[in-house]
Structure to design on (84 residues):
């Protein structure tokens, strides 16, 4: 998943549900159609939250999700593309 190219990073680490989604929605308004937002989150619930959002929203595509360890803490990475 490290090959996904992104245009902007949103650091939502330390935020609990639903704030990673709320912040991502706000950030997407600053992107052009086709651009990709990389979201970093520590809330495990964000994995299903982003999947659900992608299924119901008409203006985004969830390109992928991954996780990585950072000093013993799990970081969940979401790649969201803004549709035209």
């Amino acid at each position: 998943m490290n090959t996904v190219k992104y245009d902007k990073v949103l650091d939502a680490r330390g935020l609990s549900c639903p704030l990673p989604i709320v912040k991502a929605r706000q950030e997407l308004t600053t992107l052009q159609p086709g651009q990709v937002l990389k979201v970093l989150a520590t809330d495990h619930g964000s994995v299903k939250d982003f999947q659900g959002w992608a299924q119901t929203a008409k203006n985004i595509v969830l390109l992928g999700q991954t996780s990585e360890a950072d000093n013993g803490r799990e970081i969940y990475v979401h790649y969201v593309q803004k549709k035209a």
